[in-house]
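Final report, section 2: Outcomes. Of the targets proposed, P pilus assembly protein, pilin FimA is the one most frequently requested by collaborating groups, and we therefore present its record in full.
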Amino acid sequence: MSAGAASAWHDVALELTNCPVGTSRVTASFSGAADSTGYYKNQGTAQNIQLELQDDSGNTLNTGATKTVQVDDSSQSARFPLQVRALTVNGGATQGTFRQ
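The predicted structure is given below as tokens.
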């Protein structure tokens, strides 16, 4: 695979329910092992491949990033819409498993 090659984006969401009454906003802090590219490091057997995480506005959420959303008063819930993909920043990805 050449440098910059990536999989299709996959939509995921972090959903919080039963937020305490009176909670108006919640903040998620993102963490995980990063490799030298700054993206999340693959913990599987495939080499030279990273995980890219973005919010629904296309902002990259590398380790240490935070995202704040409003809590819905009527349902006492909050939703963080996200998207993820595998990519090879420098190329040379090998076959194997992909885990984060």
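The longest strand covers residues 78-88.
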